[in-house]
């Protein structure tokens, strides 16, 4: 419990309790809300117990998977008591307002056990009905196979790929502590409306994925004491006993990473030990330490034939076994039959949530009154407002000068950071080559390290691209933040699951990728991206932007911030000339994804290029003019933005009658035929690079003016 005020149940008035310790505050509130009042005409609240709620949760999970003939019942059945305890006593949430900004966050990292979450959402009174549970995993249902953000009320993030949920939760915790440090830094621990907690339920699979090692190290380095992970240590996964795959001491691993670790053994009856879990979770995390609770369980408990079996992990139990489960639970309730008494008991969570919400609102109002200027800044942060004069604040570069797009991006970051306090980010140990450091922004680190503060705006991710991408998603989900992270384009491979989830959720995160082609030179083929642009462009809901010069780079940043959706900004290391194009034309053209940068009265052909190859296209067009060939040149920094334009604009840039088209990009040609058509040609690179100085590598891989001219001659002859 983290709120500094409470409501006295007798009067509904607020009493200030900020002077109490974090633990005292929590216990005071829990005592007030543990037995919420029922309407005067309601039956006695003791007619159903928490045990009855757990029985209902276990059977709903089994019945839903059975009805779907698909799903993962074992974990949901076994952990129903844990989920019930979390949603009834530990997570601060309001089922009537899933978006309440004062809420804690809950992440089911083992997303395959989604029915565990859906049953709690139903039982505690979210907008999830018994019919939604009946429709589990069916077409169009609000209860899909894995939790999806925006699809089901109460789901905080899309989970599925194991380990991603845990790493996303680390980002959520980072975002929440950064918000507190930015807007309420002086409040004692536990006395700020911004003291919110992130709860995670994780499985063996989550902790076996490599991303969890990176995420665990990040959480420990950043001292995220607002993060608690409950690890379901049930000794079972799909192929059988976990001893087949693992022999590590998980507790020792997390302690070494700076976590506080506790272990809870099975209760005497073989069930999970809820009383011990309550004791552990009833106290706050030690200062500066995330917490891992290793919880022993038996998968599918107490279903006699499914208990401790790998089969119960990912397959329906079958009607006969569910009958035995009902016998073990002492009930013959029909499938999906939940009594009114059980619902009255479980939906006491709504009264608890209302009280927590009201208390938080009062605390937040007091905070607003104490510092109106900071309150206004927080309102702008929440609303994601942009300054009206943002464009005027951004840098401009003079035509003819040579500037790398990564340098231009660095200049844009400085201007944006001054204009947008919500902007922060970093790189995977590549701040200098990626140009991502926010000057005078300070390092995001715990104050006790002496190396930064939690209000610092530069995140030092270390060489952890996997967790960096997922944590960026979590930071965005925490609300308000405009977060970016950089690495080399070739290492976007390490980020792909997180990028995909960014796209699935539509999160406003910006991936910065520098060293975008063989032009990076002597680092050789392992560092030279070839296929990456094509594969990233293939991802639905994701925008790839590869600007041609410094002014296009700044315009790309501006457009990305305005779009407020997932994007990758692809940058070069080498200097490229700033094109002589009016700045307003550049900004309008980049925003639309493609525009004419060289035009002629009656073009014989058109070259479409991106990035540093726009300069190559322009020089080739000039050379072609000497032989009487009139060539239009189009810069297309973002195919996604261009293809989203109306047909009239697309046809004005690329006239349908102009079949002689050449695309030029120092990357795989894959995908460009959608733009150039069957009569067009693509000048690209369809083999890996090589170690050589940039000019030699480009020439050796065919990125030459002569090759572009040959392509022009070929397409004009065909058309």
TrEMBL record:
<dbReference type="InterPro" id="IPR005478">
    <property type="entry name" value="Transketolase_bac-like"/>
</dbReference>
<dbReference type="InterPro" id="IPR029061">
    <property type="entry name" value="THDP-binding"/>
</dbReference>
<dbReference type="Pfam" id="PF22613">
    <property type="entry name" value="Transketolase_C_1"/>
</dbReference>
<comment type="similarity">
    <text>Belongs to the transketolase family.</text>
</comment>
<dbReference type="InterPro" id="IPR005475">
    <property type="entry name" value="Transketolase-like_Pyr-bd"/>
</dbReference>
<keyword id="KW-0786">Thiamine pyrophosphate</keyword>
<dbReference type="InterPro" id="IPR020826">
    <property type="entry name" value="Transketolase_BS"/>
</dbReference>
<protein>
    <recommendedName>
        <fullName>Transketolase</fullName>
        <ecNumber>2.2.1.1</ecNumber>
    </recommendedName>
</protein>
<feature type="domain" description="Transketolase-like pyrimidine-binding">
    <location>
        <begin position="403"/>
        <end position="578"/>
    </location>
</feature>
<dbReference type="InterPro" id="IPR009014">
    <property type="entry name" value="Transketo_C/PFOR_II"/>
</dbReference>
<keyword id="KW-0808">Transferase</keyword>
<keyword id="KW-0460">Magnesium</keyword>
<keyword id="KW-0479">Metal-binding</keyword>
<dbReference type="InterPro" id="IPR005474">
    <property type="entry name" value="Transketolase_N"/>
</dbReference>
<dbReference type="Pfam" id="PF02779">
    <property type="entry name" value="Transket_pyr"/>
</dbReference>
<dbReference type="GO" id="GO:0004802">
    <property type="term" value="F:transketolase activity"/>
</dbReference>
<comment type="subunit">
    <text>Homodimer.</text>
</comment>
<dbReference type="InterPro" id="IPR033247">
    <property type="entry name" value="Transketolase_fam"/>
</dbReference>
<dbReference type="InterPro" id="IPR055152">
    <property type="entry name" value="Transketolase-like_C_2"/>
</dbReference>
<dbReference type="Pfam" id="PF00456">
    <property type="entry name" value="Transketolase_N"/>
</dbReference>
């Amino acid at each position: 419990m983290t709120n500094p005020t409470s409501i006295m149940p007798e009067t509904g008035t607020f009493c200030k309790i900020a002077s109490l310790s974090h633990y005292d505050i929590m216990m005071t509130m829990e005592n007030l809300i543990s037995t919420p009042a029922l309407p005067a005409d309601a039956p006695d609240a003791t007619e159903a117990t928490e045990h009855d709620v757990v029985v209902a949760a276990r059977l709903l999970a089994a019945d839903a998977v059975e009805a779907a003939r698909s799903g993962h019942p074992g974990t949901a059945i076994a952990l129903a008591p844990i989920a019930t305890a979390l949603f009834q006593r530990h997570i601060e949430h309001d089922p009537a307002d899933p978006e309440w900004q004062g809420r804690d966050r809950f992440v089911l990292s083992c997303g395959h056990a989604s029915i565990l979450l859906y049953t709690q959402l139903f039982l505690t009174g979210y907008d999830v009905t018994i019919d939604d549970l009946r429709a589990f995993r069916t077409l169009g249902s609000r209860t899909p196979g894995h939790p999806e953000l925006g699809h089901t009320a109460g789901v905080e993030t899309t989970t599925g790929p194991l380990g991603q949920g845990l790493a996303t939760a680390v980002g959520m915790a980072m975002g929440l502590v950064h918000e507190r440090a930015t807007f309420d830094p002086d409040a004692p621990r536990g006395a700020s409306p911004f003291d919110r907690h992130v709860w995670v339920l994780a499985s063996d699979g989550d902790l076996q994925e490599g991303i969890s090692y990176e995420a665990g190290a990040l959480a420990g380095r950043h001292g995220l004491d607002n993060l608690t992970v409950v690890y379901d240590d049930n000794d079972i996964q799909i192929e059988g006993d976990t001893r087949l795959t693992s022999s590590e001491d998980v507790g020792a691993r997390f302690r070494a990473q700076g976590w506080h670790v506790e272990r809870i053994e099975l209760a005497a009856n073989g069930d999970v030990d809820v009383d011990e879990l309550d004791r552990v979770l009833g106290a706050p995390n030690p200062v500066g330490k995330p917490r891992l609770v290793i919880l022993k369980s038996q998968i599918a408990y107490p279903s006699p034939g499914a208990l401790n079996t790998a089969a119960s992990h990912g397959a329906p139990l079958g009607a006969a076994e569910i009958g035995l489960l009902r016998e073990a639970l002492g009930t013959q309730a029909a499938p999906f039959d939940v009594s009114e008494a059980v619902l009255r008991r479980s939906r006491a969570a709504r009264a608890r949530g209302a009280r927590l919400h009201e208390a938080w609102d009062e605390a937040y109002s007091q905070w607003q009154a104490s510092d109106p200027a900071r309150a206004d800044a927080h309102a702008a942060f929440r609303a994601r407002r942009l300054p009206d004069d943002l464009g005027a604040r951004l840098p401009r570069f003079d035509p003819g000068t040579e500037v790398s797009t990564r340098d231009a991006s660095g200049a844009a970051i400085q201007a944006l950071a001054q204009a947008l306090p919500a902007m922060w980010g970093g790189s995977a140990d590549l701040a200098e080559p990626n140009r991502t450091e926010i000057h005078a922004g300070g390092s995001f680190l715990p104050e006790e390290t002496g190396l930064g503060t939690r209000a610092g705006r530069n995140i030092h991710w270390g060489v952890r691209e996997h967790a960096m991408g997922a944590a960026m998603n979590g930071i965005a989900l925490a609300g308000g933040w405009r977060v970016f992270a950089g690495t080399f384009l070739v290492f976007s491979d390490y980020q792909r699951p997180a990028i995909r989830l960014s796209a699935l959720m539509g999160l406003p995160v910006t991936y910065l990728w520098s060293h975008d082609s063989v032009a990076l030179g002597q680092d050789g083929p392992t560092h030279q991206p070839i296929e990456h642009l094509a594969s990233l462009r293939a991802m639905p809901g994701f925008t790839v932007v590869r600007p041609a010069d410094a002014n296009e780079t700044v315009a790309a940043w501006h457009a990305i911030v305005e779009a407020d959706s997932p994007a990758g900004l692809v940058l070069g290391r080498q200097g490229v000339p700033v094109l002589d194009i009016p700045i307003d034309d550049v900004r309008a053209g980049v925003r639309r994804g493609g525009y004419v940068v060289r035009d002629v009265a009656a073009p014989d052909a058109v070259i479409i290029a991106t990035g540093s190859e726009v300069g190559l296209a322009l020089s080739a067009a000039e050379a072609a003019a000497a032989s009487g060939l009139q060539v239009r040149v189009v810069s297309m920094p973002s195919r996604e933005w261009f293809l989203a334009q109306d047909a009239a604009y697309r046809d004005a840039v690329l006239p349908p009658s102009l079949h002689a088209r050449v695309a030029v990009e120092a990357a795989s040609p894959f995908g460009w035929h959608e733009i150039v058509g069957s009569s067009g040609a693509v000048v690209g690179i369809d083999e890996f690079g090589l170690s050589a100085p940039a000019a030699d590598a480009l020439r050796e891989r065919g990125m030459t003016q002569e090759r572009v001219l040959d392509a022009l001659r070929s397409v004009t002859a065909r058309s």
